[in-house]
Amino acid sequence: MREFLRQFGMLRYMNWSMCLATLILLVLGILFVYSSCYISEDLPVRTLYKRQIMWAVAGIVSYVLFAATDYRSLRRWSWSIYAGCLLLLVAVLLVGTVREGAQRWLTILNFDIQPSEPAKLALVIILARRLGLPGMYYGEWRRLGGVLLLFLIPVLLILKQPDLGTAMVFAPITFIMMYAAGVPLRALGLLAAIALVAVGCLLGAVFLPEKLGASPETQARLTAMTGLSDYQRNRILVFVRANEDPLGAGWNKLQSEIAVGSGGLWGKGFRNGTQNILGFLPRTVAPNDFIYSVIAEETGFVGSMGVFTLFGMVFWGGMRAAMSARDKLGRLLCVGIVSLLFCHVFINIAMTVGLMPITGLPLPLLSYGGSFMMVVMSALGLMQSVHIRARRAIY
Amino acid sequence: MELNSPLDGEHLRLRIAVVLMFVALLFLAGALWRVQVVQGSEHAERLDKQSIRRVRLPGLRGVIRDRHGELLADNRPGYCMALYVEELRQAGRWDRTIEEIERVINELSGVMGVRPDVSRDDVRTHIRRRLPLPFLAWRDLPPEALARWAESGVSFPGVDIHIEPLREYPRGTLAAHVLGYVGRARLEHDEDDPYHFYMPDMQGKFGVERSFDARLAGVAGGRLIRVDASGFKYNEVAEREPQMGEDIRLTLDARLQELAETLLVGQRGAVVMVDARNGDVLVMASSPTFNPTSIRSRTALQALNQDPDKPLFNRAISGQYPPGSTFKPLVAIAALENGGITADTHYPCPGYFALGGVRFRCWRRSGHGSIGMRKSIEQSCNTYFCQLGLKCGYDRIYHMADAFGFGHRTGVALNFEARGLLPNDSWKRATLKDGWRSGDTCNVSIGQGAILATPLQMALFAAAIGNSGQVYTPRIVTDPWEEGNLAQKMAWSASTMDTVRGGMFDVIEAETGTGRRARIAGVSMGGKTGTAEYGPREARKKHAWMIAFAPFEATRYGVAIILEDADSGGRDAAPRIAKLMACAFNSTPVFPDPAAEAAPPAVAAGTVTL
Which CATH number do you get for residue B202? Predict the structure, then answer.
């Protein structure tokens, strides 16, 4: 009990600017979830912001608990957490709820959870543990192979759901953590080259046959070989051929761009985003994956940059914690968590301005969604835990 | 701080990572600057007014033609006044938007001089059920109203002319029951599905329009148009081409169909003519009829539904009637095939047949004397067929009729086809709580009692006798690849066919035949008349039937006609068969029109069964 109180007392050493940025982002998230839904005729949608408040509160509790806990206890728990997440990923394939053709949700005690979200954090933790083993040298392929295996198992399970977007985000996280852990550049370069060739082959199989004038059957066969579903292929096609079928598959992309673009410098004002109010931006995605379009439309370029600054403060705080961490585990944890958040922020925003295909990755702290909110807040709490216990005089 | 931490060497990599992240964020910020500020300022003045309008381009429904290409169902443009709800959307509750829409409608009404024909509830329903579609405040506007709107110079933001295809049936009531009609498609409310905006407005509700809806329906396309505050279109963003539905060619022959319908004018009844060689339905007429073009509103449909004569009811396939004497050829076939009876079997006819205490009367009170098979078909002798049925046994009759298809749907590609009814012991026990008796056998042997058949079944039956036992699935839409779909090849022996066909030849071609008024010049035919009683005996209500096939050799056509509440098959149905066949063979009826003829001799009366 005393020990517990002592740990709690140490919360005063946390990075308060990072904490403040997090809180502001949480509040913004609630406000704009409200703004994107208040017009809806459906009561459950109109009151979505109330659920977001509930999740934010649960997130803050989780944040405090993780910050108070010594992250070094993860040395003992990392494997159990990883194994637990893998079990959930297997379970979702067996008994998960199917929505829109993908089996991504587990219903536990009336809550729909998406096990691929905690799996992201579990991967960061297990990689930090593995790569952070004292005295470990990763110049050997055998050692590196073990790390890659840890990365591949959850990715394959998530691809099976199928959820290409979520699976894809695992790769840069792993890569950045390996880089930060000191894996030789030679090995990293080789891995990056392999990944590029693989992606190249995939895109080639989707696009080249048509360009080369192959018959539809050949095209269909090659597409089947890539293992992409029709709708995944469509999303890539929509991205590459910018204005293909803007009334159908390209609708979200076009509307999101119009929403962001019409925001201008100063925006249309809170609750005044016409794209959103008129329902051009489909209401099922506005509060989740396209929340940034709503923010950008209503607060303009100025607001967009404000959100950037807040995220920048969080990333910077995380990287500072990484640099000052007292051990490699802590450092890699912070790097992993920052890269996790960074990938989501970058991909999501790039998607809303049409620089990336629509992948369905949520925006941390802002998008509506319980599982991801809890994961992000726990991760940020962990980062604070590293910061609190960093190399500085602690008495 | 421990400056000599072993971790320090790797800080270089972290610093590089931080720099790279910063660069990536800068890149994104640049992209946002481009989209939001550089491109955004292009319409800086119009920013808060601009709006994108989704315009539907309807996919045309395929047309329907007869077998020779004559147009039976077509489309014409109807001009509508469309209100784009998203442009009229008021912040806050939908009620405010509804008020705004009402205001715009009233203003438009004043400008065009046309009364509004939608209510507040219509607007509300539209918003609830079909929000992504423009609200059509007026449909099929007259050109004067459009001209007044165009010349008024008043600007109506969010209002535009929308062209909607309207279904039209250029031949009016011709083949109405086969063509059917269309109505508005039901849309499920799902505002986030961009595709449902492109579902067809029209949906086939009856007839071929309904059963071939999937082929006829087109796929609507759309266009995105940027409009400014005054409703001026200044930029087309994108287009999706509408797709036209498939055209359909019916097996009907419009010329014969038209004649058949005139034969039924002022009379409840039906005519069906099939091609005996492949099952093509050449004529399917039902009377009274309706004009499918007029079914545009719910009230028009309701009026038709409430008409006591049931004009929407396709009597040719949904009407079930006791077949009367036209069923006798089947009893004859069953008896000859395996009932231990030959063409020479004679039974006495004293004018009635006594079974227990009940007398089954023959239509000829004086009786036919000792009569054989062929003559009894020609004369339609009830006494003979009662005895024949009892001798043969009901099981054999039932199995023959069942194998042919009585009591089963023919499978014609139209909805609401009736099965008819072929009774048997288990049916009688289930419905009447009574076992099968000899009296029931006698009744069915002369096509009375519980047995029911549709005119289409009877036409197929005529065709099958004409071509010695080939039963085709009737075809209503031509498909060029198939030779006809043989549903059943009845194993009817040549000697049986000789006898039964011979009897049916005599019905028309013999001087004393009951159906001789069907005779036409130059083509010999076979047929059978029937007069079926229905309802309580005292009411003496009768349907007149006739079935026929022609030519007698190498048969091409099988025909059935039924006239509800007529006197007799020979007098009422046979002359109509003659006119129809004469038209089909470019011939003339041998007998002049009975209307022109003086009172016909009593002997010429058709069969009065039971």
Answer: 3.90.1310.10
Q: How many domains does chain B have?
A: 2
Contact list, A180 vs chain B (CB under 8 Å): 10, 13-14, 17
pLDDT band at A231 (very low <50, low <70, confident <90, very high): low
Query: What is the rounded CA–CA span in Å between residue A149 and residue A165?
Result: 20
Q: Is the pLDDT of residue B5 over 50?
A: no
Interface of B with A in 552-571 (CB under 8 A): none
Strands A102-108 and B51-57: unpaired
Q: What tens digit of pLDDT does each residue of B510-567 get?
A: 999 999 999 999 999 999 999 998 888 778 889 999 999 999 999 999 999 999 999 8
Q: Residues 178..217 of B with a Cβ closer than 8 Å to A: which?
A: 191-192, 194-195, 197-198
The chain A residue lying nearest B10, using CA atoms, is A182
Q: Between residues A91 and B4, which one has the greater pLDDT?
A: A91
Tell me which residues of chain B, numbers 91 to 130, contact chain A at a CB-CB cutoff of 8 Å: 91, 94
Reported ipTM: the value is 0.87
Per the listing, tokens 């319980």 go with A370
Query: Domain of B81?
Result: 51-182+192-249
Q: B567 and B459 share a domain? A: yes
Looking at the fold, whether B265 and B219 belong to one and the same domain comes out as no
The residue among B5, B10, B12, B32 with the most chain A CBs within 10 A of its CB, best to mutate, is B32
pLDDT class of A42 with cuts at 50, 70, 90: low
Tokens found for residue A86: 């893998």
Residues B210 and B277 in one domain: no
Find the radius of gyration of the CA atoms of chain B. Answer: 35
Beta-carbon separation of B54 and A260 below 8 A: no
Q: Is the CB of residue B283 less than 8 Å from the CB of residue B256?
A: yes
CA dihedral (A47, A48, A52, A54) positive or negative: positive
Q: Read off the pLDDT of residues B93-112 as tens digits, 9 standing for 90 and up.
A: 777 888 888 888 988 888 88
The percentage of residues in chain B with a pLDDT greater than 90, rounded to a whole number, is: 51
